[in-house]
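Async update (no meeting this week)

Hi team, since we skipped the sync, here's where things stand on the single-chain job. The sequence we agreed to prioritize is pasted below, unchanged from the tracker. I ran it this morning and attached the output directly underneath so nobody has to dig for it. Comments welcome in thread, and please keep replies under the output.
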Amino acid sequence: MLNSLSPRLVFAGLVLLAVVSMLFARVYLQEMLGLEACPLCMTQRVFVLAWGLFALIAVIHNPGVIGTRVYAGLCAVAAIAGAAVAGRHVWLQHLPEDQVPACGPSLEYMLDTLPFTETISLVMMGDGNCAETMWTFLGLSIPEQTLILFTVTTLICLWQMLRSCPQSRANL
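Output:
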């Protein structure tokens, strides 16, 4: 049954998943609940946008077999990188209080004053702001939920890369 889904439809689903994820983060968590995104949260959003953009390009391009595998691979790389950042974030949240790094400057300040490579290095280390659990759903913090999202996305992308299905350049 799943193999009957066209690659284009799967990529459209990945785009929809990225859009819903970003709307949830921006509209609900940030605007409605007033939660500010920490540097690691912002980095995770970049990887959601990356997989969504690769999937959107795939929907528009509607490639053949090789192109489908390339786009699925690019989406998977973005999702795996996002999972690595989310995993780091989860690890920071589970550190004992005495081991949590000190709070650092805001991402905007770092981008304005530090070289880009140093900013990336500091963001990936995380800080005390990243260790706070501000909101949970079903007992899972936002980074834990995001790690699950990246894992599911990676699995979908790997399935899309490895599955054998008749390729059709027809519309959805």
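Quick observations from my side:
Residues 93 and 131 are 4 Å apart (CA to CA).
The two ends are 16 Å apart (CA to CA).
Reply here if anything looks off.
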